[in-house]
Amino acid sequence: MNRNNLVLIGFMGTGKSTIGKLLARNLNWTYKDTDLEIEQAVGCSIPELFSSRGEALFREVESAALRRILAESQQVVATGGGCVLAEQNCLLMEKSGFVVSLNASVETIVSRVEGAKDRPLLAGNTREKVVELMHKRRGVYSFAHYHVDTDGLDPEEVADIIIQEFHRH
Ligand code: S3P
User: Fold this and answer.
1) Strand pairing class (5-9; 30-33)
2) What is the pTM of this model?
């Protein structure tokens, strides 16, 4: 397995950014975030990009951002929840680093994302949208090398579990 990068995947609100920053600090690696990379590349926010250009264009920009990031190494990469929808992205993640999937229940996710305005796919009834999208995305995170159930754990505990597993490989 390639240990050049540590890549976090998982549904929105599973804690990828928070845990990614902790991991990067622990490993003394660079923290990268596909959403931030996208916003820098296009010069507007993700909701603005979704409303002006649509999801299809967003996905193209997202794949390009992931390719740019994974051309480098020694990074902890937090990916957007839908980054795994393109198979080529999954193949690239799998060969560029240790891929960790963060899992969480609907309850945990809703409690984390409720009220935030920065996720266009969850606009409206948050709970309904989460349930519907999780159902649609069943199995898309299963290609990860390692899975962590984050329910009931704080970010430090999740980061510790991942670090231990990472050093075992
Ligand atoms: C998305 C997840 C978001 C962001 C965009 C679309 C998705 O990232 O990329 O709103 O399709 O699941 P987070 O998972 O960091 O919220």
Assistant:
1) unpaired
2) 0.97
